Amino acid sequence: MTVLLDRPVAVAAEPRAKPAATRDPFIDLLRVLGMALIVFQHWTIPVLSYDGVRLTTGNALATPGVWVVTWLSQVMPLVFFAGGAANAISFGRSAGGAPLWVAARLRRLVWPLLPLAAVWIPLPHVLLTLGVPEQPLEVGARLTGQLLWFLAVYLIAVLATPYALRLHERHGWRVPAVLAAGAVVTDVARFSAGFEAVGFINVVFVWLAVHQLGFFYADGRLRHAWALAAGGFGAAALLVAYGPYPGSMIGLPGAEVSNMAPPTLAMLAVGAGQIGLAVLLRPWLVRLPTRRLLAWAGPRVMTMYLWHMPALFAVTGVVVVLLGIDTPAPGSAFWWAGWPIWFGLLCLVMWPLTKVFARFETPPALPYGMSGWGGTLAAAALAGGGVLTLTVGGFAPGGGPFLAVLAVLGGLLMTAPRAGV
């Protein structure tokens, strides 16, 4: 696969998706199953109780010994790997220049956020006037925004793709090796100095390293998957056993260190293991009868990601806050007996949300014109800054969410059609 950074050229319309026959079912399946597992996990692990004033949130995976499940259930590495492969394939087929491709990717990534913001910016104010308790409402508003970290980081990966592909063509495996080395240096500085903020540099090193591995799959150079699986999981086991890393790949209440926020070298090692295992299972996975599943779920993946937490808060508000029914102890008989009811209620709420908001997955197909790097980078900076602000502060009442959404809108408008083009 030869990747060129072409000069921007005028096109008649927003680039359209390729026919289904040209898509890789393995990558599509990883995207869909990855998001489905994220939703399933977020709906299953909360341990919730309400004392009449304060909503307390716990994590079922904090149960001793259960952390090992997270080595497979924390699938964000697979999502970034699939994104890297999809970006490499899409960029290789694009007819326009790199800035035009990035702008189109930015629109597809950020556009579904607008209806979420349109609901959540006024919603806390409305519910407060209706007498909804403030603390549980603030928990829901903030956690809804925290999940947007994925959009902010993935936008960095999209911006880096044209240059990362050029480096991939020239230097191959040396690129993820350098990124992994950066993760090592970052963790050494973080844990030796005790300065936690240094660890957030690994947001770039860890997730871009996993994203870069997707390029090798896209051009058929991801061989010896068994070595990647064994080496990744083996390295993670050594890091957990002898390093400062916890066993869980999901942040747990009360834990001094999280492998996820910020991501650590242990997370990168588990990600490599997951990718190797997934590639080993590819011949079996692609034979599964998933065509209808992918056709239905593929265009709704972002909707499910953005709206599954609001669905959780809606059910929590009624069952836990209003009715006063706390979730049972994880693994108890009551927990197992009540879980199907809990999950059924969540699906019941999620279904109309999906029906209403899935239409916003695809941005309007307008006559987009020429786009240079200056305007594209400015648009990405505005949109990314807005998403990052929502990630940090959520949709809690105040002016922050409103200003953040204005920045996102500004970024989208900068990719709009130019007059006279």
- Shape estimate: globular
Element-by-element helix/strand order: HEEHHHHHHHHHHHHHHHH
Residues in helix, %: 55-70%
Class by alpha and beta content: mainly alpha
Instruction: Please work out how many helical segments DSSP would assign.
Output: 17
Rg to the nearest angstrom?
A: 22 Å
In whole angstroms, the N-to-C terminal distance is 31 Å
Overall pLDDT, averaged?
89
Beta-strand portion reads under 5%
Please give the order of strands in the largest beta sheet: 1-2
Largest sheet, described in full?
2 strands, antiparallel
Strands, count: 2
**Could you name the ranges where pLDDT drops below 50 across 5 or more consecutive residues?**
1-21
Tell me the quaternary state.
single chain
Textual characterization of the structure:
The protein is mainly α and 421 residues long. The chain contains 17 helices and two strands. It has a two-stranded antiparallel sheet. The protein is globular, with a radius of gyration of 22 Å. The two termini are 31 Å apart.
